Each structure stands twice: as C-alpha cells, then as structure tokens.
Amino acid sequence: MKPYLKEFFTHFDIGVMCVLLVAGWTVILPHANQGTIWLALVMGMAGYALSEYMIHRFLFHMKPPRHPLLLAMLRRLHYDHHIYPTELKLLFLPVWYSLPVMAGPALIAYGVTRDTVLTVAFMTGVISFLLYYEWTHYVAHRPIKPITPWGRWMKKVHLWHHYKSEHYWYGVTNPLFDVMLGTFRDEQQVEKSETARNLEGKADSRF
Asked: Per the confidence metrics, is the pTM higher than 0.85?
C-alpha cells in the first residue's frame, strides 16, 4: 500500500488540494466550538457529493461539443479516461478545472453568510469530500483491494460504469443519487454498451 499512498499524495493536483485542506483547517480549528462551523463543513461535503454525480452525468458525459477547445477539455477531463481507464494522469481532476469550479460555491457561500470563517469551513468541506472522491476513484482504477466491504463494492460498481455501460452508476463514492435519479441498475440486467470505452462514439451528431 505504501507505494500507492506515495503515488497518490505526491501527484501535483492532489498535493495542491492537500495544501488547501490544511490551510482551511488552520483557519477553522480556532472556531471549532461553534456549531455553525461544523454545519458549514457538512454542507460543503454534501454539496460536493451532489456535484460529483451531477457533473459526472451531465457534463462529463455530454455529447461531444463542436468547439475544439471544449472538446479538448472534455477529452482531458473524462472522455480519454474511458478510453484509458488505468492511465494515472487521467485519474485526477486537474487544478485548472477544480479551482475555478470551486470559486463559484465559495462566492455564493460568502454572499449568503458574509462570514469569511464560515465560507472557509464550507470550502474545507468541499475539499475534504473532493479528496475522498479522488482517493475512492484512484483505488477503483489501481490494483488495490479496498479494506472495507463498502469500498470493495463501490469499486466494483464504478468498474461496471467503465466496462459494462456508461449510462449507469455515475456515483463514485456512493450510489445515493444513482438510486434517486434512476441510474442504478442490477448489473446482470444491463446490456454491455459498445461505447463504454468510447464516449465520443455514442453521439451520431454533435450540437
């Protein structure tokens, strides 16, 4: 396991998020006796859990756009990951994507609370869940056997998404939103998709 831990935590994009996580906790720990801090932290985690599903399903699996820059972006973010699911550099969300995407929720949180510490707590929750997502996703694609039955099951479910059908099982850390939104199926009842490894091939035409 040590080589995989080293591989994970020394990756540039993960390292940046770890630094931001430590900085966030440094800000909020002196205020840890305030219940609102923990509420903001949990809300940040819940927000990322929802975005994990929504972004994966509706952005990363959108029809290939005509614009070459957008197409190149989606190839890096997800299309190529389905072609090369074990390629290390394609397993992690790049910071050029993650940081701008997180700026929106940060501005909204500050606009609602008008409180810097609460905003930092909310974003610390976001980053905490992002790193949990990144680790879960990393484990799913590396030759690692998860310690818990839950981890082993989620790894199996995610690999169904890659090798059985890209139309189901969008949740990487949990199946909650798949169940709620109808994209969780019994694997035995799902036909093997011809485009699970080629997301660009599923579109007859581009918009």
From this structure: yes
SS (H, E, C) the chain: CHHHHHHHHCCHHHHHHHHHHHHHHHHHHHHCCCHHHHHHHHHHHHHHHHHHHHHHHHCCCCCCCCCHHHHHHHHHHHHHHHHCCCCHHHCCCCHHHHHHHHHHHHHHHHHHHCCHHHHHHHHHHHHHHHHHHHHHHHHHHCCCCCCCHHHHHHHHHHHHHHHCCCCCCCCCCCCHHHHHCCCCCCHHHCCCCCCCCCHHHHCCCCC
Phi, psi values for residue 77, rounded to 5°: -75, -35
- Between vectors from CA 150 to CA 144 and to CA 153, what angle results, nearest 5°? 65
| pLDDT tens sequence across 99-135 | 999 999 999 999 999 999 999 999 999 999 999 999 9
**Band of pLDDT at residue 203, cut at 50, 70 and 90:** low
CA–CA dist 135, 164 (Å, integer): 22
How many angstroms separate the CA atoms of 186 and 183, rounded?
A: 10
